[in-house]
């Protein structure tokens, strides 16, 4: 595997166009595209490593919070991502071996290659991952434990399931869609800019509306009953940001 620490922050993944991109793109757009691709790398690596959904979410949030503080031009994003996966495993008590993270990352960029040998290149890369982990901890002042929307969404799904028509619930994949929408939120900085309860409500709201599942009518909206401090504006803001991420995904293909 090519040592990510040896690549500049302007480089994209092997086989993709460098971040220089089109002249019509702004620096901000190029950075958003880079972060989107790197978070997709984190998620795919997490699946191959057998990570649970919350540790993967923590890895993505660590990545986003780190680059909220530093410039993408200074640090190699894929090396930071590998270190975030390693650190997230510790934070969420799903410990991962650095060798496994490095080999999965190597296969991500070189699909047909064999695992790396434990040679000088491997140990240098391992040291880079560990040193980058310490840098992330210092940059975030060791605040690496986050509240995620996952537990809220689970609670909201159980509450909504008890309210809607049983047949309408069983014939539509509302729960699966809401979880998928929540996972997609972590491709961008929504986890930083929105409250976890609001993200959970918004993804459930979008899933219900997508399948036309009707909720009982009462004095208050169902989402106000579940989360008193959320407003329609909060829900619309989350959905707007999520739709922008999907637009970004089409541009990253």
UniProtKB/TrEMBL annotation:
GO terms for molecular function: cyclin-dependent protein serine/threonine kinase regulator activity. Residues 40-138, 158-244 form the Cyclin-like domain. It comes from the Eukaryota. The keyword Oxidoreductase does not apply. Residues 1-27 are annotated as: Disordered. Residues 1-10 have a biased composition (Basic and acidic residues). GO terms for biological process: regulation of transcription by RNA polymerase II. Keywords: Cyclin. May be an activating cyclin for the cyclin-associated kinase CDK10. PANTHER family: CYCLIN. Belongs to the cyclin family. Cyclin-like FAM58 subfamily. This is Cyclin-Q. It comes from Gadus morhua.
């Amino acid at each position: 595997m090519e040592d990510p620490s040896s690549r500049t922050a302007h480089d994209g993944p092997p086989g993709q166009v460098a971040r220089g991109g089109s002249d019509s793109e702004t620096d901000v757009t190029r950075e958003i595209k880079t972060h989107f691709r790197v978070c997709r790398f984190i998620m795919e690596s997490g699946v191959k490593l057998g990570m649970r959904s919350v540790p993967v979410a923590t890895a993505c949030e660590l990545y986003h919070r780190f680059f909220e503080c530093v410039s993408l031009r200074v640090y190699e994003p894929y090396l930071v991502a590998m270190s975030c996966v390693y650190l997230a495993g510790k934070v969420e008590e799903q410990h991962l071996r650095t060798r496994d993270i490095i080999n999965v990352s190597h296969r991500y960029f070189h699909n047909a290659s064999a695992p790396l040998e434990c040679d000088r290149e491997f140990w240098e890369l391992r040291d880079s991952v560990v040193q980058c982990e310490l840098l992330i901890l210092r940059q975030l002042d060791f605040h690496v434990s986050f509240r995620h929307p996952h537990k809220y969404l689970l609670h909201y799904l159980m509450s909504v399931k008890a309210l809607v028509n049983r047949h309408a619930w069983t014939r539509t994949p509302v729960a699966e869609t809401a979880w998928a929408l929540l996972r997609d939120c972590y491709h961008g900085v929504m986890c930083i800019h929105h409250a976890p309860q609001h993200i959970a409500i918004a993804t459930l709201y979008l899933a219900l509306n997508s399948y036309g599942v009707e909720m009982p009518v009462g004095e208050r909206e169902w989402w106000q009953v579940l989360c008193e401090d959320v407003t329609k504006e909060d829900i619309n803001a989350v959905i707007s940001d999520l739709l922008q991420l999907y637009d970004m995904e089409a541009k990253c293909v």
